[in-house]
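Late entry, zinc ion complex.
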Amino acid sequence: MSVPRPSGLPLINIPHRVEGKSLKTWSTPVHNEEHSPIPCALCGGTEFVSHFTCTDSGSTVPVVSAAEKPPSFRYVRCAHCRLVQINPQPVPAAVALRYGKNHGVDYLAYEKTNEAAFLRLQELALKDSGFFELERGLMSANPKGPEVLDVGCAAGALLLTLKGRGWKVRGVEISKPQADYCRERCLEVSSLPLEENRFPAHSFDAVLASHLIEHLNDPANFVREAWRILKPNGRLYITTPNINGLQARLFGSSWRSAIFDHLYLFSVKTLTLLLESAGFTVERVKTWGGLAAGIGPLPVKRIFDVLAKPLGFGDVMIVRAVRPA
Ligand SMILES: [Zn+2]
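Prediction complete; structure with ligand written out below:
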């Protein structure tokens, strides 16, 4: 297993705005929802310490109404396993409501606008994870095409690409407008959460989840279900922000990924422990993204971007895990 070492940098928490604008990732706007305290999703612990409090959700959309606007949202860190999480946490029913066409947010339009850029990033991440090398073996072993499930498949661009490469593809997308759009593109996509689809055991050679796990109330249940539906030697590919990366350490509560929609912020270590608890073996971890645009001169950004991957301090990570035979 090749796992980058944690950077060991302290949390610095520099306010991060360029020309007065937040550089946070787009999010559902902060609004009042029912919250409930939960045990840690990784270790079951009930003791937490404050990690940071965010006053900027990352949304570019106004809140539902000024009266509903809470001042902030807060991340805590499990005192035992160090998993960073929003806790008390919005209840699952409230979270599910975020991803339809609610709160003035049109996720389908957002995905369509950014489709080419997002697809390129997903393909680069899969390349880093060794996906395409494994694909060659799967293609020769499965003349009808190996089977892949993309969970949180958005508008289906990656599924279309993989279909074109010979995969038998299916998707899960709880945002109904996006799932409908996928079906218009002749893709088989369910709008139920993964666990409710009751896919038969051992259905897939690969399960993909890009920028998904940090949005889920119960990431442990998600990885257990992925394990169940994967064939022996099947692989799970998870892409998620890296809270041990340089930018998370520098910017703290202003970090681009510290947004209202991210219920969990994983490190390589906490994500590895979560996967191992479900029976997976982590085979490969890659991180990328050294500094966001606008923080310093472009040549400096380029140096940090180049160094992030080999040194493991990148802003986003992809983790490839195998379900042992
Ligand atoms: Zn914990």
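The chain has nine helices and 15 strands. Will revisit in the morning.
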